[in-house]
Write a structure and sequence with these properties.
The protein is an all-alpha fold. 93% of the residues lie in helices and 0% in strands.
């Protein structure tokens, strides 16, 4: 019974880590998609500010993805 409890606690810790990673990945996806939308607006508005903003937000998404992998 002790071995099963120890294994269950191990899996519970792994589950907690996976949930934290999922939160980071969700934020990263949001940032990348927002960057895509801003770049699309740049095409419609013919304004480079939106494009640079979109690329910046997408870069933040990439950083958040890396943070998620190393959590």
């Amino acid at each position: 019974a002790k071995a099963e409890r120890k294994q269950a606690e191990k899996y519970q810790d792994l589950s907690g880590k996976s949930h934290k990673q999922a939160d980071w990945f969700d934020l990263a996806e949001l940032a990348v998609e927002l960057g895509l939308v801003l770049c699309s607006v740049a095409i419609l508005a013919k304004d480079a500010k939106f494009w640079f903003g979109g690329m910046g937000v997408a870069a933040i998404g990439i950083v958040l993805t890396v943070i998620g992998f190393f959590m």
